[in-house]
Amino acid sequence: MRRKIIAGNWKMHLLTDSAIDLAKSLAESIKDVDDVDIAIFPPAPYLILMKEVLKDSNIKYGAQNMHFAEKGAYTGELSPGMLKDIGCKLILVGHSERRKIFKESNELINSKLIAAINNHLTPYLCIGETLEERESGKLFEVIEEQLTIGLKSISEDDFNKIVIAYEPVWAIGTGKTATPEIAQEMHLFIRNWIKKNYSENTSEKMRILYGGSMKPENVKSLVSQPDIDGGLVGGASLKSESFSQIIRFSR
Ligand code: 13P
Questions:
Q1: Rounded to two decimals, what is the model's pTM?
Q2: Quick check: is 145 catalytic?
């Protein structure tokens, strides 16, 4: 039985006070939950505050993006070592907003994944197809390419340190959740890809999260699918009440 993960991606929202309030209130409201892995991805300026705010909690935190290099002349970027230094345990890699707006390629995402693993940060590899790709029937091809190039030269041992998040782009921030059946179909495809390219044992262990308009009302039907192991939540993670409900309803 795979342990569920519920993770919140705060994207570019909140300011100092609201970020601290949200993290504190969340930590308080789910402090009794010991059977779900809980994570948040706050904006970079607030990560250092999380070290203190979340120190006695069951919530892990990480950044939404990083560079793959350890240091150097990369104005505006953050290194894996810096993130580790401020207590991050996790890192989002390849979110569709990074792919689309900031033109991140599968090759770049592969470099970031390798850097994360080398620095003992758990990468959440985000993959997903656009509406156009789905409607043109290329959806499985796109996902396969994201996996094949994104995971290039990553050993089975290292692959086991990764979490995968399937986020259909057309369901992100649109209120249009994939139906549990549509999501399950892709999760199964991803698991089978893992079985073929790594092993059955690894495919059975891998946690694959769903992301895209997840809310308290739909979490149960999604995570009750056999291959959906939790969620990566955007909008509904910005309120302690809705995010803690999602965590509770995922059990
Ligand atoms: P929403 O839950 O707002 O659709 O965002 C999903 C997402 O992009 C999480 O990374």
A1: 0.97
A2: no
168 close to ligand 1 (CB < 6 Angstrom): no
Residues written for the chain: 251
Which structural domain range is residue 193 located in? 4-249
Is the CB of 167 inside a 6 Å radius of any atom of ligand 1? yes
Q: What is the CATH number of the domain that holds 61?
A: 3.20.20.70
Query: What spacing in Å lies between the alpha carbon of 69 and ligand 1's midpoint?
Result: 27
What's the average model confidence in pLDDT over 178-202?
A: 97
pLDDT in tens, 190-200: 999 999 999 99
Which residue from 58, 65, 64, 61 is spatially nearest to 3, judged by alpha carbons? Answer: 58
Q: Could you give the number of structural domains in the chain?
A: 1
* Conformational region of residue 153, where left means phi above 0, alpha means psi within -120 to 50, and beta covers everything else: left
pLDDT band at 89 (very low <50, low <70, confident <90, very high): very high
